[in-house]
Design brief:
Growth Hormone, Chain: A; 13 helices; globular
Amino acid sequence: MDLRHPLLAQPAFVRFWIADGVSMAGSAITGLALQVLAVITLRATGTEIGILNAARWLPYLVIGLFAGVLVDRYRRRPVLIGTDLARAVVLGLIPLSAALGVLSFPALVAVVFVFGALSVAYDAAHQSYVPALLPKPMLTVGYARLEQTSAVVQTGGPVVAGALIRLIGAPLAILVDAVSYVVSAALLTTIRSPEPAPDRSKPRDLRAELGEGLAWVYRHRTLGPLAMTSHLWFVCQGIVTTVYVVFVLQTLDMDAFQLGITYALAGVGAIVGTSLSTPIGQRYGVGPSIIACRWITPVAFLLIPLAGPGTPGLVLLCLAQFLFGLSIGVDSPIEMGYLQWITPSGLLGRMNATLRSVNRGAIVIGAPVGGLLADHLGHRPALWIGGGGMVLQAAALNLSPFRQARLPEKADHPTV
């Protein structure tokens, strides 16, 4: 085994990693192409753009918990392959409709909603599949590499997407994403790593299974506080990120290119953070490392309303975004490794789906709240409120039993 690059000695994970990277690259293209298609081609209003964005995350609220139960009933790899192929077909409807001249805004919203519903199942299986590909001691570094790939895509993806959209147009750019899902599915079919079969000895009871997942998340001594503060984190993130765009473009009178520069710095921070995540987690432990990151986020957010127009303001915004990306880059791999370590295999899908669904639901709540605060109180007060909420979540986690969170030598849960 190459001790310098131990993950390369795990061929099943490497194939999963490549498939994930291909899929994320395609998604970065669609994320921008959908906005351009809606605004330029379909002449969507600002309210309609909000509806389109909400359609992407609404399925997490509607079916997220049920997706977790589904994923725990079946092996994860077939779920990943099936949802990849289904998403390819669904996205392919957009360029086909555009070519036939029948694409409308309601149809686009419907496609995005179905795509989001498929992504709910994919995401629950995606996070839960990694423990079948790596030994538990390698989970943190594995998630760090996945987060690094995501950070690189977030940094360079919008630039590549913009060039591709200019070259071939938004509908065909979305077709590129559809193809990326086919490639991802093909790569996943080559993985031969054995995956534990779900326990079918007990009768299935949807209500009981939902209850088991919720109880595991919210009654666990360390996972419960982490989950609750994460929900507040996402509400506050929804507030700040909603206000941020109009604050930069209107209050500070900066242009879209300058806004893009600040977002790119968040990607750079995430790359640096994921590079440091494993050694930080090993040196300081799970609880202290994640809590420190939860304090970095409010520092980053509270810098934003201090920014003024011109170059000094741009530099301050870049620093804020860098710190935000850094906090996520360090936090996410440690957090994901810890969650997959302490959770029984039979509950992984429900645990991941519960956290992701409620967190995405928190964004749906935070975003309109941010808009209302900005409209009634002003941009800077709304940003201060969002940053203040981040201080509260960090303080709450700091005072909770999560301070003692650690990676146990043996998972501290009963066999499920």
